[in-house]
Design brief:
The complex is a heterodimer of chains A (282) and B (286). Chain A has eleven helices and no strands. In chain A, helix 6 runs antiparallel to helix 9, helix 7 runs antiparallel to helix 8 and helix 9 runs antiparallel to helix 11. Chain A is mainly α and 282 residues long. Chain B is α/β, with parallel strands linked by helices and 286 residues long. In chain B, helix 5 links the parallel strand 7 and strand 8. In chain B, helix 2 packs across helix 8 and helix 2 packs antiparallel against helix 9. The longest helix of chain B is centred in the last third of the chain and has 14 residues. Chain B is elongated and about 60 Å long. In chain B, 51% of the residues are buried. Classes of the chains: A mainly alpha (282), B alpha/beta (286).
Chain lengths: 282, 286
């Protein structure tokens, strides 16, 4: 009995290994064909030398990179601050939208309007309107720093997106959870805080991070208000030398922060899949 | 030379105010196009109307280029330049006849009703395909435009602008002027287009903006109610204006010759100083 079983198992494992090996070979061959073909297509195109000179010039990269890097610090500070504001404001808006208290009706209407309008207007328009509109009021006490104004505009726009992400999370928690919490004597607030929100936030972690990545790139929109952040500095260098390489340098910097976060996001999503499938504890 | 430049919005305004194009065809006589001095005698010039130098410009004309909308009064930068050219070519002021030529049709291809046209027309390769340009009679310097009562409103030198927050448009000669000539202690605010730059000045988000002088004069006189040109300073790469002549005109070489003489005698710079500096209320920043 046992020898038959182990013989079958060995055969099964051998077959599995064969299949895996075959998979690896196929992946390698298709990678070489597809990527190599693309590279060959680009490198042999008649315009490649001029593309290389205007987009991938090492000397232009070297001269502009330190300046672009210094300007990128503005972007980093801006998205870190804005992200914190967005996470808090988005949660508040989502809670307002999901509350059922009759007294909160006007707040609900305002929150709905906020989300509808700011999610429906292109972010760059919000940046323009806040950046040029608020100082035009000429009221003392209002911020005039373009970075601050741009940050406010981004926070407004992204709080609308993030509020909807939170709301989706809150709505996804089964009503029985809340009912059970109320049944054991928790108040509505306690039920929300201790039972609903923890589950809701865990479920929407991936989409929240997705919006965070999106925000990291969109801070470049603040450049229209005048501050010299990475994209603008790259643009200035590009215009000065008729060479787009500085823009590539800026793109690399944005990738340096978005790609690691994207990998974290992938792992979190994989983890949550396993949790849902029940193969891993929370 | 920079790829993008602040085209004086005045030109756009002039174009939009354009009156219907003149339709009469040009009478052309065949003459050689060589540029010897003898060929530039009034009798030998191929003119639209012999014995008269017909000069085109748009209507209305604005200060400091044309004063009182009367180019024939000899006042204003472009009127003065035209009469100086006419004199070099051997025409008395009474032999100069002004006609109205809308800005856009001045450099359109085809027959011309003028001997030359002067209308703040920037020399560009595209336009030069359709018409002849003289050598430039003006290269636009940069100007610092601020609002009355700002902290740089009374600046008299470039050094006085060091601590100012300056606004400027990306990809322009003005931006290089700020970075290479003024070298302000704080970073300039850099905007996508001239509207944003002007908005920032209106909002007082910046202390002053840097644009080319004709734009600054236009903004001060026509767009903004509370603006002041702090001053002007020359940088290479500014917009160059030439008088426009019919493509292949025999007159082009003669006008160039006249301009060269005006330049070497210092007359052109005197006219420029008088109208684009004193009269335009745009002092030189040292």
């Amino acid at each position: 009995m046992t020898t038959v079983a182990s013989g079958r198992r060995a055969a099964r494992e051998q077959a599995r290994r064969r299949k895996a090996r075959r998979g690896t070979i196929i992946a390698a061959v298709s990678s070489v064909i597809v990527l190599g073909g693309l590279a060959a297509l680009i490198l042999t195109s008649s315009g490649w030398p001029s593309v290389k000179a205007t987009f991938f010039s090492w000397s232009a990269f070297k001269t502009s990179f330190p300046h672009v890097l210094r300007a990128f610090w503005t972007d980093v500070k801006l998205f870190l601050v804005v992200e914190v504001i967005v996470l808090i404001a988005g949660l508040v808006i989502a809670l307002v939208r999901t509350t059922r208290a009759p007294a909160a009706f006007p707040l609900r209407v305002l929150a709905t309007l906020w989300v509808d309008i700011l999610r429906g207007v292109p972010t760059i328009l919000v940046v323009y309107l806040v950046g040029f509109g608020v100082p035009a009021l000429q009221l003392s006490g209002l911020p005039t720093d373009p970075v601050v104004l741009g940050g406010i505009a981004l926070a407004m726009s992204y709080s609308a997106y993030v509020a909807e992400v939170y709301r989706a999370g809150i709505d996804s928690v089964h009503p029985s959870q809340r009912a059970a919490a109320l049944a054991v004597g928790l108040t509505h607030t306690q039920a929300m805080r201790a039972v609903v929100l923890p589950q809701a936030v865990r479920r929407v972690m991936a989409p929240l991070l997705n919006d965070f990545i999106s925000l990291q790139k969109d801070v470049a929109l603040v450049s229209v208000l005048g501050p010299l952040e990475a994209f603008r500095v790259a643009q200035i260098f590009a215009a000065e030398n008729f060479n787009y390489t500085p823009l590539i340098a800026a793109a690399l910097l944005y990738l340096c922060v978005t790609v690691p976060l994207a990998r974290v996001l992938d792992r979190m999503q994989a983890h949550s899949r396993e949790v849902t499938a029940g193969t891993t504890p929370l | 030379m920079r790829p993008i430049r602040l085209l004086p919005p005045l030109l756009a305004l002039a174009a939009s105010l354009a009156i219907a194009a003149c339709g009469s065809s040009t009478k052309t006589s065949s003459t050689t196009t060589s540029a010897s001095a003898a060929n530039c005698a009034p009798g030998k010039l191929a003119l639209v109307k012999s014995g008269t130098l017909t000069v085109g410009t748009d209507k209305p004309g604005y200060p400091p280029y044309i004063i009182d909308d009367k180019p024939s009064n000899g006042k204003g930068f472009e009127s003065a330049v035209s009469y100086a050219i006419a004199k070099q070519l051997g025409f008395a002021p009474s032999q100069v006849k002004w006609i109205v030529v809308p800005f856009n049709s001045s450099y359109a291809p085809g027959p011309k009703t003028f001997d030359f046209d002067i209308n703040q027309i920037s020399i560009t390769p595209q336009r030069a395909k359709a018409v002849d340009f003289s050598s430039p009679y003006y290269t636009a310097p940069q100007a610092v435009l601020t609002y009355k009562g700002s902290k740089v409103a009374n600046a008299t030198s470039l050094a006085d602008l060091k601590d100012a927050k300056l606004g400027v448009q990306v990809g322009t000669t003005s931006l290089s002027a700020v970075q290479d000539v003024i070298k302000p202690s704080q970073q300039p605010a850099v905007f996508n287009d001239s509207n944003d730059t002007v908005s920032a000045l209106k909002n007082k988000s910046v202390d002053a903006i840097v644009v080319d002088l004709p734009t600054a004069i236009y903004l001060r006189d026509a767009e903004l109610s509370n603006a002041k040109v702090v001053g002007q300073f020359a940088v290479p790469g500014g917009d160059r204006w030439g008088v426009v002549l019919k493509k292949g005109s025999g007159l082009t070489a003669c006008v160039n010759q006249a301009l060269a003489k005006l330049q070497s005698s210092g007359q052109l710079s005197a006219i420029t100083k008088q109208w684009m500096n004193s009269s335009a209320n745009a002092p030189e920043l040292s």
